[in-house]
Amino acid sequence: MSNAVEKYQKAQHLQLTDKLLVQMRGHTALLTLNSPPANTWDAEMLQGVKQLVEHLNGDKDIYALVVTGAGSKFLSAGADLKLFASGDKAVARSMARYFGEAFEALSNYRGVTIAAINGYAMGGGLECALACDIRIAEEQAQMALPEATVGLLPCAGGTQKLPWLVGEGWAKRMILCGERIDAKTAERIGLVEEVVASGAALQTALALADKVAQQSPVAVRKIKPLIQGARTHAPDQWLPAEREAFVDLFDAQDTKEGVSAFLEKRKAQWQNS
Questions:
Q1: What is the pLDDT of residue 86?
Q2: Handedness of CA 151, 68, 46, 171 (dihedral sign)
Q3: pTM of this structure
């Protein structure tokens, strides 16, 4: 497949908002949030993310999804607070559901998701990154969950996913004290996996996605839930499932291909089946 970034034609029937730009590069889908000036979320964008991920789950040619923000200053500044200015609980309930459904779909995507944090990731912007499997941040990036500052709270996984990554203490500093952290601190506490130079997050994320394409997509699909399962169950509860998943892989053509390619000293040709 081509290594050039091109339009993802298979998503045309979804009729996504222009605020979501979907491209592909090889076996990687690239989602760019394009809602200037700060790439803030609205209902249409969130519903679009859910639709896109559901579609990608059925596309056997795509193994990874990279998420980034348009421009050089923001991944996303979170929700547009004007949506909540009226104090309408029905609007709040709907937006909370849209946020939750979008980022839960992102977290549960069968492939690997990588957030390329190219600037500020605030509120729902950081929660989007938290829903991804891996986070790459540029050196100028700033991250925060400042909802309590305006009388709100993170409603798209922030109170659950952040402490899992950084521990309860840092989660409370960021959420309860409204502390904003820079990329260097984020890397030190485990919020991001790597910090790169300004302008380099996307290419770093795409290079990492290329490594994903070297793995069996069937194996990745089996492995990811096992890793994430440790969040909700003790490790010993997952050990039997791990063994069963190992055995189940022998029903897959890709398992036969992977072993044969290794023994024959050639590159595996995955079929995602």
A1: 86
A2: negative
A3: 0.95
Report helix, strand or coil for 121: strand
Q: What is the pLDDT of residue 85?
A: 83
Q: What is the largest CA-CA distance in the chain?
A: 66
Q: Which of 127, 242, 257, 264 is catalytic?
A: 127
Where do we find the tokens 């859910």?
Answer: 50
In tens, the pLDDT along 193-246 reads 999 999 999 999 999 999 999 999 999 999 999 999 888 877 788 899 999 999
Distances (CA, A) of 52 to 17, 49, 57, 84, 236: 11, 5, 9, 26, 35
Going by C-beta distance under 8 Å and a sequence separation of 6 or more, which residues neighbour residue 116? 66, 67, 68, 75, 136, 201, 202, 204, 205
- Report the chain's C-alpha Rg in angstroms: 19
DSSP state of 228: H
Catalytic residue among 54, 147, 187, 193: 147
User: What pLDDT sits at residue 201?
Assistant: 97
Q: Which positions ≥6 away from 72 have C-beta within 8 Å?
A: 118, 119, 198, 199
127 is catalytic: yes
Residue 156 is encoded by which pair of tokens? Answer: 């798209």
| pLDDT tens readout for residues 11-27 | 888 999 999 999 999 99
Could you tell me which residue, 72 or 123, shows the higher pLDDT? 123
How is residue 91 annotated by DSSP? H
Bridge partner list, 22: 31
Pairing relationship of beta strands 112-117 and 134-138 according to DSSP bridges = parallel
Q: How far apart are CA 240 and CA 261, in angstroms?
A: 28
Q: Please confirm, yes or no, whether 147 is among the known catalytic residues.
A: yes
DSSP 86: T
